[in-house]
Amino acid sequence: MTIFAVIASRLSKAILTLLAIAILNFFLIHAAPGDPAVVLAGEAGAADEQMIEQLRERFGLDQPLYVQLGKYIAGIVQLDLGYSFRQGAPVAELIADRLPATLLLTMTAFVVSLAFGIAFGVAAAARVGKPSDTVLTTMALLFYATPLYWLALMAVLVFSVWFGWLPGFGYETVGANYTGFARVIDIAKHLVLPALTLGLFFTAVYMRMARASMLEVSQLDFVKTAKAKGLSDPVIRRRHILRNAILPVVTLAGLQAGQLVGGAVLTETVFAWPGIGRLMFESLAARDYNTILGVFLVSAAMVILFNIVTDIVYRIVDPRIGARS
Amino acid sequence: MKYLKLKATTFLIAASLASPLAAQEAGGRLDIVVQPEPPGLMLGLVQNGPTQLVAGDIYESLLRYDGDLNPMPSLAKSWEISEDGLTYTFKLNEGVKWHDGEDFTAEDVVFSADVFLRETHARLRASLAYVESITAPDPMTVVFKLKEPFGPFINAFENGTMPIVPKHIYEGTDFANNPANANPIGTGPFKFKEWVKGSHIHLVKNEDYYVDGLPYLDEVYYRVIPDAAARAVAFETGEVDVLPGGSVENWDIPRLAEMDGVCVTEKGWEFLAPLAWMWLNNREGPTANEKFRQAVMYAMDREFMRDVVWNGYGKVATGPIASSTNFYSDDVTIYDHNPEKAKELLAEMGYDGEPVSILPLPYGETWQRWAEAVRQNLSEVGINVDIDSADVAGWNEKTSQWDYDMAFTYLYQYGDPALGVSRNYTADRIKKGSPWNNVEGYENPSLDEKWAAAATMVTPEEREAAYLEIQKEIVDDVPVAWMQELTFPTIYRCNVNDLVTTAIGINDGPRNAWIEK
Lengths: 325, 517
Fold this sequence. Notes:
The structure holds two protein chains of two kinds.
Chain A: H1 3-31, H2 36-43, H3 49-59, H4 65-77, E1 83-84, E2 89-90, H5 91-126, H6 131-145, H7 148-162, H8 180-218, H9 221-229, H10 233-245, H11 247-258, H12 265-270, H13 276-286, H14 289-317, H15 320-324
Antiparallel strand pairs in A: 1-2
Helix pairs in contact in A: 1-14, 2-3, 5-6, 5-8, 5-11, 5-14, 6-8, 7-8, 8-10, 8-11, 9-10, 11-14, 13-14
Chain B: E1 29-34, H1 49-55, E2 63-65, E3 71-73, E4 76-81, E5 87-92, H2 106-120, H3 122-128, E6 131-138, E7 141-146, H4 167-170, E8 190-196, E9 200-205, E10 219-224, H5 228-236, E11 242-243, H6 253-257, E12 262-265, E13 275-280, H7 290-299, H8 302-308, E14 315-316, H9 339-349, E15 356-359, H10 365-380, E16 385-387, H11 392-400, E17 406-411, H12 417-420, H13 445-455, H14 460-477, E18 480-485, E19 490-493, E20 496-497, E21 514-515
Parallel strand pairs in B: 1-10, 15-16, 15-17
Antiparallel strand pairs in B: 2-3, 4-5, 5-7, 6-7, 8-9, 9-10, 11-19, 12-19, 13-17, 13-18, 14-18, 20-21
Helix pairs in contact in B: 2-3, 7-9, 13-14
């Protein structure tokens, strides 16, 4: 099968999957106790029946569930994610507003953790049993085991409160009105702590996986053959071992990449990062059905998309996969 | 005796705005935390706490109120109440303009109260039921005529209760879906500039504000910081200047208050006067028994809870009316911490150890700890308690469907028992589906009549006597377990002056605030 045929068949399946996910999410959300009209009215601390009824009517909650579902599905088929009555804006707009911040944060964390994870893993495997290997693996274990929330707060405490080196929260300096390069620098400064916090955990995961996989592959016969051919160690590591050892890392990275769009609720909350994870969390608390469903759907689409991308990357890294099927 | 200045004889107060002193410095920027992020800024449509905080600078109402709830001029420069208590006449300030440059007139007031808010504002609607007509005899005069006297009506002109909205933008439109809601236009001291969702809301000085010299500040930023610990850090690092009440957990307050140049005030909550209590389900289970409910009151060491759970902020409640609300009296049965008495009452009723559940309010760690303190006190007198849990939506569902034994809540009082107290105790307010009415299911027909009569008495003296009688009787019945009057301290940098000067505190604080450089 050519790569294009694979993509076409995957995409057609993906659309059905997405539809099923949308329907399932719809019922899950509506099964949760609570009523968005009452939540919205409740924040005002007072409400009468007329107000609750008005809100329900506006939200369309006065209609039977199947009618609401029908309308929702009809909407998403036309790529309309609906309207957030709570926030008074189309859901697509709300998501689009938050998406850049989330992507910047999660992509940075992803790239950094993948690069450092593989580099450290390869380095540790090359020095297996030596002190530098022990230091690296211990660090990885530490970051793997530390709760993200605690790590984030400590990072803020040390780098922001004590030393004052980096801003502790936010996306950029509010009200500074930087433009051009100054703005890029400003955002980058704000990005450091959240991206590191989010990235450390995955760095640890990738490193451990890369190290184990490198060690496993280095025992195989073809590596001995390569050595017997007289190739140098660095060449063997890069061209023979790494290429074969990388597949499990790619699998895991594919899984993580799918979650990039879903945001990182904890990190975004602690660092006041205006991303999509917070949007989802706050909408969930308010039972803002359309917004939650919208975020879920976009995240699901991304998971599917990145699964397809992962499959393609497999074929590039290991041509045998395409040849076999 | 705070109502004395409100005597029902005809009176007139001339515009007596704080005269600007030489010391006040213009300019500067104020960063205030807003939590959670408001769902919208159109104050006529949304009246939750964060919206009132931000939109209180954009919109205005006819009156403001000082810390003793005496009315002060705002959009109205003077007002008059007729001797029979039926006619309220307001003279409006001249030269007031909407932020889009249109003139503000009495027609805007009539439209706001009679058309817009009547449709959108549940709490005001209850007061408007007493109103026969709202008219504008000339462009600078508004007259409210009532069907019968309604003492608390003078408190209905507060900004969160009756914000004035622009007629020229909203007349004949679908209010909820008007595109102008995203770009609110008011008459207030600050104009809406920008809202970066999830980050901040930016307001700028209204250069054409009708009070000379005001506001002093050039701009105000409301910062959205979702994590309580991060909010504390933001204040420590100087990123924000003001933490409105409730922005940080209580145990952080002493630490922040000790910092250099940091001031704390408990003022600014007199109008809202949040009172916390536990609903005790009067319909079924042990809580249906009056003796059990009294036992709960005696079993609790509410002073200890105030000192430990709330770090000493607040005041133990004596009954349904908060002490800053009009007609409060402490001449009632006082429930002190008396475990022996509680045990006696439980023995008298023959309590068999049937467990009761407590549903805390899902507003953070303080509330969780409060429920745990209550559980401990109750178990000391032999009551078996489970702690239930729910998120905000789940809490709303459980309380409004009466699916609880004991549930924490708090509600605002809006200065008068007829506005913010009776709604929780009269039988006509027993209705499923809302967590702000008589959720406990308390029925006392003779008291119902007294509540209704007290609302429409003409003189404050009559009303005071009536409410005293009500308080004495209801406190003995213990329909709910009154916990404490909450105060949410505002934490700010001391060089910010005149931030909290009215009964709604920081909600209209930036209007007068100035920064000492």
